[in-house]
Design a protein that fits this description.
The structure holds two protein chains of two kinds. By secondary structure, chain A is of the alpha/beta class. Chain A has helices at about 45-50, 80-85, 105-110, 110-120, 130-150, 165-180, 195-210, 225-230, 245-250, 255-265, 270-275, and strands spanning about 5-15, 20-30, 35-40, 60-65, 70-75, 90, 185, 215-220, 230-235, 240-245. Chain A has a six-stranded mixed β-sheet, with helices on both faces. Chain A is globular, with a radius of gyration of 19 Å. Chain B is globular, with a radius of gyration of 19 Å. The chains are: A alpha/beta, B mainly alpha. Chains A and B meet through helix 2, helix 3 and helix 4 of A and helix 6 and helix 7 of B.
Chain lengths: ~280, ~300
């Protein structure tokens, strides 16, 4: 199923002073596939995400995205252009919703660029231009579609902050999807979810991959999620890539087992990684 | 009762002007968390733009007052907005991501710069503009005291209501307003959704400056005299209004402006004119002691 790489990361390094958070990591993520990045705490997974989404300028390295919107070197785009031009969306380990807005508004904000263009950068929108009305209607429709997909339809007018935790996680994914990305980066989407919720999450992510035909990059500690839905896994440890392959290979990889079991025996991920072994 | 009503009218007109300026403070604070101390001087520029435009229109022979006011309103808003944009671009944007205090100092510098810029170009003497909008409507009479509302006061209150309504619509209903609220809550997240942060912040300054320009126009017409220094006290008063209403809150800015206007009017009427500023600022002190978030402000939740 995985075909031409959507994202190609080459020799990515990120240094903070003397600390090397990511050290010469190269990997590729295919279009229409779920690529998981796993590794013990502090392995540099989130740093990779931060480089991809323009939070950090990588010290060295090249990140190329060949998506439906064209070909981009992500390290050359700053801030909002990563989302606007290249079409990379992300969610956060600690949820970052617009807490003071309604659920629906959170999803409409995500369609900012399309609406901004349609409203002639607000100026023309002031005169109630027909195209803007239509586009706004379409934005709400799209938001409703994602509310439906994530099971939040009934909460549309609630304040985002008032949602239960699991629903906030789903809303974050819905919001990212409303930007119509070509690559969706999810930072620990299953953290804090119970077994039933993470099963639902698995289903949602698989559906997104298959229906929306986009690439998903996933950081996750929950091995029941990773092993079940990933098409490909990249393992980081201390900022370096120690393994990559399909889930069945990763399960048997001696380096991975050592990294997990050798480093942090008492920690959740380690225990769960152990369980996941055949 | 008659005297009271008259002061109420005066206070509302004055409060409207403070409210219009206070919006600029509160919006900028909401979105980038800094106090734009140059905002009072932007308002002063708005007043000067209005004055100059009136003189230009006069020399062009535009003497029909409603048309002249409308033209001045539009052009003063545009010109002043350009200054607002430029101030942000030159003095604040390069300091974004620096310490919190840096743009604050830069703002004070910008304030001094703008004052001296106008001082050099226009001189220090007060510039009069009389008799554009005169006359009043007597409302009622009681004990020989006639309560009246000036046409200028009606204009101020009407323009303020219309602008506030339009502005509330802009913030709550339009794409730009949504982007502004998103930036207010989480700037980096907004950027990740493709919102152009720099442009959104620029637009905030542009909107704030154009509202300040309206206030400048109104003051020019209302008091009939302006000088390069009017921005300072008006700016501090409007800032007080914003804090009183709860800085960051838009209805709060309007409410705070009205309250400061009313306090000033009533204090001047029933006590002494000389101490009206003391009264206004005492309120600020009391609010900061007993309700630091202002009347309509939400308590600041520490971001994790």
């Amino acid at each position: 199923m995985p075909d031409a790489p959507l994202l190609t990361v080459e020799h990515l390094s990120m240094r903070f002073g003397g600390l090397v958070a990511v050290d010469d990591v190269s990997f590729a993520a295919a279009d229409r596939a779920i690529t998981a990045i796993i590794g013990p705490n502090g392995a540099g997974k989130t740093t990779v995400f931060n480089c991809l989404t323009g939070f950090y300028k990588p010290s060295i390295g090249c990140m190329r995205l060949d998506g439906a919107r064209g070909s981009f070197l992500l390290e050359r785009l700053d801030g909002f252009r990563v989302a606007q031009k290249a079409g990379v969306a992300r969610t956060f380990q600690n949820i970052r919703l617009f807490a003071g807005m309604s659920v629906l508004e959170n999803l409409v904000v995500a369609q900012h660029n399309r609406l901004m263009k349609a409203s002639g950068y607000t100026v023309l929108g002031l005169f109630g231009l027909g195209t803007y009305r239509a586009e706004e209607q379409a934005a709400v429709e799209r938001a409703r579609y994602w509310l439906d997909r994530t099971g939040l339809t009934n909460a549309a007018d609630d304040q985002a902050a008032s949602l239960p935790y699991g629903a906030q996680r789903r809303l974050e994914i819905a919001r990212a999807m409303c930007t119509e990305p070509v690559l969706l980066c999810l930072d620990e989407p299953a953290a804090g979810l119970n077994a039933r919720e993470s099963a639902e999450l698995n289903e949602l992510l698989l559906k997104i991959r298959d229906d929306e035909k986009i690439g998903i990059l996933l950081i996750e500690h929950d091995m029941s999620v990773v092993m079940e839905i990933s098409d490909y896994i990249v393992v980081l440890d201390y900022g370096r890539k120690i393994a990559e392959g399909v889930p069945s290979e990763i399960r048997r990889d001696a380096n991975v087992i050592k990294a997990y079991l050798g480093e942090a025996e008492d920690e959740g991920p380690a225990a769960r990684a152990g369980e996941a072994r055949p | 009762m008659a005297y009271f009503s008259q002061q109420l009218i005066n206070g509302l007109a004055l409060g409207s002007i403070y409210g219009l300026i206070a919006i600029g403070y509160t919006m900028v604070y909401g979105i980038i968390g800094m106090i734009n101390f140059a905002h009072g001087d932007i308002y002063m520029l708005g007043a000067f733009h209005s004055l100059i435009l009136f003189l230009i229109l006069g020399s062009l022979g535009v003497t029909w007052v409603p048309l002249a006011i409308l033209l001045v309103l539009v052009f003063a808003m545009v010109l002043t907005a350009m200054y607002g944009w430029a101030v942000e671009r030159v003095a604040y944007r390069p300091l974004r991501g620096s310490t919190r205090i840096a743009p604050l100092i830069s703002a004070i510098g910008m304030s001094i710069l703008l004052q001296n810029y106008v001082l050099l170009l226009q001189g220090a003497r007060g510039k009069p503009l009389h008799g554009v909008v005169t006359g009043s409507i007597p409302l009622f009479e009681q004990g020989g005291f006639v309560v009246q509302i000036g046409y200028m006061q009606i204009l101020i209150i009407l323009v303020t209501i219309v602008l506030m309504a339009g502005f509330t619509w802009l913030i709550t209903r339009t794409t730009l307003g949504r982007a502004q609220r998103a930036c207010e809550q989480d700037r980096r997240m907004a950027a990740l959704l493709g919102v152009n942060i720099d442009r959104t912040i620029s637009m905030t300054f542009v909107i704030g400056a154009s509202l300040a320009a309206v206030a400048g126009l109104m003051v020019t017409l209302y008091y009939g005299i302006i000088d390069f220094y009017i921005g300072f006290v008006a700016g501090i008063k409007a800032f007080t209004a914003a804090v009183l209403g709860g800085i960051g809150s838009l209805p709060g800015a309007m409410l705070g402006g009205m309250l400061i206007g009313l306090i000033e009017a009533f204090w001047s009427a029933y006590f002494t004119v000389e101490y009206k500023d003391v009264a206004a600022f005492s309120v600020l002190v009391l609010v900061l002691i007993f309700r630091p978030t202002g009347l309509l402000g939400k308590p600041d939740v520490e971001k994790v």
